[in-house]
Design goal:
heterodimer; A: Rossmann fold; Rossmann fold; 12 helices; 9 strands; B: alpha/beta; Urease, subunit C, domain 1; 2 domains; six-stranded mixed beta sheet; globular
Chain lengths: 326, 429
């Protein structure tokens, strides 16, 4: 495995499975009354967030703390960054403080990769611009795997999956990702990772919200949500950003919602075993109806819980795992 | 300083060896054997002799951004690249939109003395795209401006572009357009295609360039004026220009060295040294540009030398400045992309890097050829040399060369401007 996690495309199938299997084991610890492991004691993990994202930051913070790492939260707002400090100077500062891992969220695509060139520690991409969000894809894959135990026979429910998923991938599972693919780092990472794990991914969006060269991606593309529904084991809804709503990507929020929103009627078109996912935060009533978000098919809350386990696995393997081997 | 020089054994335009005698600023003789008495001798056996190169598109940054480049450092870089004349783009601070500013730049060029500096005048006041600058005053000034451009910005208003094209006919001017439809490129970062989609960078679609070029060709034809298209970067643009030229319209075009060699796949590193406007395109575009330059659809190579200080490039991609240095590597890149591939011979290089840009720039005198009786502006070039580009050795004040670390052929050994050496043995004379 690489020293950094910048893109889901950096992960081989074996890398990805190792992370998911490790997350499975670590998830069991979350069920214990004392949730802490000593693995990263004495290591320093910096949460470097240039963009507000309380949920992702908290998830990484919880993951690092459960592995006993020292966590420093560095938010760009109100810091020297707000006074014009460059990304490079911030990197050199973290370097001087001896950060073993830097978890970075940035509005500019590629910022984690630039950072990785300036620090000795491990860089984990916690979302960069419209580029990638690899730990989100990992937690999504983890969630899907838990719901579709792939060890034997037809898909089983979550309880059966809990026991029999280790080492299994997502071969042949049909995942439909719906929404603003053009600006979505979640979509990019998911397409790459789910493809690596053997799933058949279909992107559904209005043509305005797809990259012009999406044909070169390892997935199918459709403009017709209704046609894709009966052929979906997983439907993943993407958030529609507020700033897209007035930029002629679609005529109106209502029209978007009618054509690409997941409401109860559409949910009824899904196969029985299908699940509904959303990376959050949701626009209830826009891309997903409240009744769908709160339905039994929805894994949205579960995704949040799984996020901590998967991020523990990533930190463990990138920091602790390497240490243990050497 | 204009002594007598005997250049021994050089190959004019890559042909057979011939001694060149320079006297009183002119090429006194080409060929023959007996050297003149008292001449300084340069052993140039095997070196290619080219007419002094002319750049239609250089950012010298002075006045305003002397931290990036000055007329002094930029013209040093030019001379070291084999250039004897450069056109200084107007997007300085203050903008070169008045006779006063263009004369200041012209004078700074005369003082620096490393190569001729021909200021380009802005088309619109402050590059604002609203009101024509005093084009006539700049044309009549000591700087004799003939090329006008808002480069860095597109004259996107069709009426304003039409008026500019019409107006400069009065003094044989040319409008050099930075073809970029602004609405289609709002926030654009990288060629729109596979790479921009993968990297999550806002796309700069080819159509934003091609649509403006098509419109401007039609406008130039309608008013019977001269259009020059800056830094053509797409295969579609080459086709449109080929079509316009086929109609007999007065359209000329340039391509940069970097667009002849590099592709958008380099952006995968997110290193903004590869960030430029127009952006690096695909391998198919590179191939079409090379073909267009070879068949004459694209008239000339122009560097778009765009120096930037380290702090404007050592950042996230989105916030970094657009632009690349190019004066000191241009001829070497052209050798790699055009000569070593068999697309152009050295006479062709002389045509595309000296004769044609001089003609487009309306430069007086027979710049662009080598012949007895002409001003002795020439470059001696060792096409057999090779080394790895190291921007730290460049005379430009900036270091943002996209060719850093690449091995390129060639070395400029000497440059003469009107009989005076500006570069000897690869160093400033």
């Amino acid at each position: 495995m690489n020293r950094h996690l910048i893109s889901a495309g950096d992960l081989t199938r074996d890398d990805a499975l190792l992370i998911l299997d490790t997350a499975d084991e670590l998830a069991r610890i979350s069920d214990r009354p004392i949730k802490k492991l000593p693995t990263l004691r004495g290591r320093t993990v910096v949460n470097l967030f240039f963009e507000d994202s309380t949920r992702t930051r908290i998830s990484f913070e919880a993951a690092a703390k459960r592995l006993s790492a020292d966590v420093i939260n560095f938010s760009a707002k109100g810091s020297s960054v707000a006074k014009g400090e460059s990304l490079k100077d911030t990197a050199l500062t973290l370097e001087a403080m001896g950060a073993d891992a830097v978890i970075v969220r940035h509005s500019a695509s590629g910022a984690p990769q630039r950072l990785a060139g300036w620090v000795r520690g491990t860089v984990v991409n916690a979302g960069d611009g419209a580029h990638e969000h690899p730990t989100q894809a990992l937690l999504d894959a983890f969630t899907i795997r838990r719901h579709f135990g792939r060890s034997s026979g037809p898909p089983a429910g979550p309880e059966a999956a809990r026991t029999g998923t280790a080492g299994s991938a997502l071969d042949g599972l049909r995942v439909t990702i719906v929404g603003d693919v053009l600006h979505s780092r979640v979509a990019r990472s998911n397409v790459l990772l789910l493809h690596t794990l053997g799933a058949d991914v279909t992107l559904v969006a209005p043509p305005t919200l797809l990259p012009v060269a999406v044909g070169s991606w390892p997935c199918s593309v459709s403009y017709d949500f209704d046609a894709a529904l009966p052929k979906s084991d997983v439907v993943m809804m993407l958030r529609v950003q507020q700033e897209r709503m007035n930029a002629a990507y679609f005529p109106s929020v209502r029209e978007y919602s009618r054509r690409y929103g997941l409401d109860v009627a559409r949910m009824a078109q899904l196969p029985d075993q299908a699940i509904v996912m959303h990376p959050g935060p949701m626009n209830r009533g826009v891309e997903i109806a409240a009744r769908v978000a709160d339905s039994a098919r929805s894994t949205i809350v579960e995704q949040v819980a799984n996020g901590v386990s998967v991020r523990m696995a990533v930190l463990y393997l990138l920091l602790g795992g390497a240490e243990a081997e050497s | 300083m204009t002594g007598t020089w005997l250049i021994r054994g050089a190959r004019p335009l890559g042909g057979g060896p011939a001694d060149i005698v320079i006297k009183d600023g002119l090429i006194d003789r080409l060929g023959g054997t007996a050297g003149p008495a008292g001449a300084q001798v340069i052993g140039a056996e095997g070196l290619i002799a080219l007419p002094g190169l002319v750049d239609l598109h250089t950012h010298l940054r002075e006045p305003g951004r002397e931290d990036a480049e000055t007329v002094e450092t930029g013209t040093r870089a030019a001379a070291l690249g084999g250039f004897t004349a450069v056109h200084a783009m107007a997007n300085t601070d203050p903008v070169a939109d008045t006779a006063g500013v263009v004369e200041q730049i012209w004078r700074l060029g005369r003082q620096a003395g490393h190569c001729d500096v021909h200021p380009v005048g802005a088309v619109t006041v402050g590059l604002g795209g609203k009101q024509l600058a005093e084009l006539g005053a700049m044309a009549d000034s000591a700087a004799r401006v003939r090329v006008f451009s808002d480069d860095g910005r597109c004259v996107s208003d069709a009426v304003l572009m039409r008026r500019a094209l019409e107006y400069v006919k009065a003094f044989d001017g040319v409008i050099a357009q930075h073809a970029q439809e602004p609405r289609l490129t709002d926030g654009a970062q990288l060629n729109e295609g596979e790479m921009s989609g993968r990297l999550g960078l806002a796309g700069w679609p080819a159509v934003a360039e091609e649509a403006i070029i098509a419109r401007d060709c039609l406008l130039a034809a309608h008013v019977g004026s001269a259009l020059h298209v800056c830094h053509v970067s797409t295969a579609g643009s080459v086709e449109i220009i080929r079509w316009a030229k086929g109609k007999g319209w007065r359209v000329t075009a340039e391509v940069t060295p970097h667009h002849l060699l590099l592709t958008d796949s380099l952006a995968a590193s997110y290193d903004p040294v590869y960030k430029v406007n127009p952006p690096l395109r695909t391998a198919a575009d590179v191939e079409a540009l090379r073909q267009g330059l070879a068949d004459g659809t694209i008239d000339c190579v122009a560097t778009d030398h765009a120096p930037h200080p380290v702090e404007d490039k050592e950042t996230e991609w989105d916030t970094a400045a657009f632009g690349m240095t190019g004066l000191e590597t241009a001829l070497r890149v052209v050798q790699q992309a055009m000569v070593d591939t068999g697309l152009l011979d050295w006479a062709g290089v002389a045509d595309r890097m000296s004769r044609r840009p001089a003609a487009i720039g309306r430069l007086p005198g027979p710049a662009g050829t080598l012949g007895a009786g002409q001003p002795a502006s020439l470059a001696l070039y060792d096409a057999a040399a090779r080394d790895v580009v190291d921007p730290a050795t460049h005379a430009s004040r900036s270091r943002n060369s996209p060719f850093a670390g690449m091995e390129l052929p060639g070395r400029v050994v000497a440059t003469f401007r009107r009989g005076v050496p500006t570069v000897l043995d690869g160093k400033l004379a």
